[in-house]
Amino acid sequence: MQFKTQTEAGENTGLLIIPVLSSNSEEIIKSKLGGFSVNSALFSGKKDSSYHLEIDGRLILLIGLGEKPDISSIEKSFRRVLSKNKDLVEKSVAIDFSDDFSAELVESALVGLQLGAYSIGFFKQKKADQKDLEDLEVNVISTTPDLPKMLVRASKIAAAKIEGFKLVDLPPNVITPEYLADWATKQGAAHGFDVTVFDQEKAKAEGLDAFLAVARGSAKAPKFIIMEYRSPDAKSHLGLVGKGVTFDTGGLNIKTQGMVYMKSDMGGAAAVLAATQLIASLKLPINLTAIVPAVENSVDKDAYLPSEVIGSHAGLSIEVIDTDAEGRLILADGLSYLVKNYQVDQLIDLATLTGSSVGTFGYECGALFSNSDAISDALRAAGMQSGEKVWPLPMWESYRSEMDSEIADIKNYHGKPIAGAITAAKFLEAFIHEHPSWAHLDIAGVAFGDSEFCKMKSGTAFGVQLLLKFIENQL
């Protein structure tokens, strides 16, 4: 899309979009439509409402946002514009914001508009009349200071989120560990961060034994991806790790249901990859080291076995109780490698890790675990501000004994239908080398799911906006 600033709505003949707050809907409508009014029974600015009309041959779309809209609801409302109203759009649209809209809300609207052009139909044959919105001209009318700068920023945020969508939505025969490594390399060249990829031989030399054990059953070679973004103005160093299981059969403890959705088991990796792209493209004044251990958990004669004892980068031996508890194994090596090789001030991992977190929070928020009240509070606040909510669960030491093994230093699963998300977090904690500021985000219920924008479950890019807000709140 091509964003432009515009002084008033009359300069363009394309679709005119007017966002309306219910608190002063009549005033906004009369002001923007030159005294023209709409009966409140038809449209009053109520949240999630819209109204179409035509004045002097020009199509107008009124979008109701409610009384006090937040970032998430505005983004969703504007995503609907192109997702559900493509027939109203030709070569250009104009958006006329009233002075009630803060810079943050305008930015969210522009991000949402761009997300509305995203479609999951990657492999469908294109129809002759199918609209290409890539060159759509979007004229923005707003009194927001530094509007041109904001337009650029909104485009970068939307681009990163769309990449987050794609990485989860593309099928597992496309999204392989090698694809993720190539993606990172290309984005690094485009946005200015360094990328190192360990192949199987190098990973073995580095002692990434838990990571390699998960990969043994797949014909697709694992890739251990390290991304390094550095800013000359940085005052802190953030470490990220994202679970990159490109497809999860469950291994020899094969899944008995829902396997069709397991292309989403790299939702944590998608968040970390897209967030790295965004942080670098915005040139945020921090240092970032992000690791994505990328594997496929499959089944063949070489697949790792339940009851095996495997090694790990941290030097701890691990008894494998369940091969479907594989995400924590690759995260363990990712966390350990990051802490041992980089001096990060804060450490965060994101993973679609447990069904237990979904059982606790449903599809409303991610589960947050941390050994630091400061980072936990900061992430929770950023989640509420961004609409990508996370909420804390306890990390009491009494849960640690659930992961005790008779034969090894630790086991990867406690085998009980209770406290699954918590015990998984306690497992990961054993591999952070007592880093004092660590948080684990279990995003199994929010990285992939049903939405009004797709008939099938699809990626949400959960974590991208959260991490951006988390970082910027500390600058």
From TrEMBL:
Top-rank taxon, per record: Bacteria
Entry's SUPFAM superfamilies?
Macro domain-like, Zn-dependent exopeptidases
Q: Which Pfam families does the entry mention? A: Peptidase_M17 (PF00883)
Single Gene Ontology BP term?
proteolysis
Tell me which Gene3D superfamilies the record gives. Answer: Leucine Aminopeptidase, subunit E, domain 1, Zn peptidases
Sorted UniProt keywords: Aminopeptidase, Hydrolase, Manganese, Protease
Drop me one GO molecular function for this one: metalloaminopeptidase activity
- Keyword Iron-sulfur in annotation: no
Question: InterPro entries recorded for this chain?
Answer: Leucine_aapep/pepB, Macro_dom-like, Peptidase_M17_C
CC annotations in GO: cytoplasm
Q: Which family does it belong to?
A: Belongs to the peptidase M17 family.
Name this polypeptide is given: Leucyl aminopeptidase
* The organism of origin for this protein: Algoriphagus locisalis
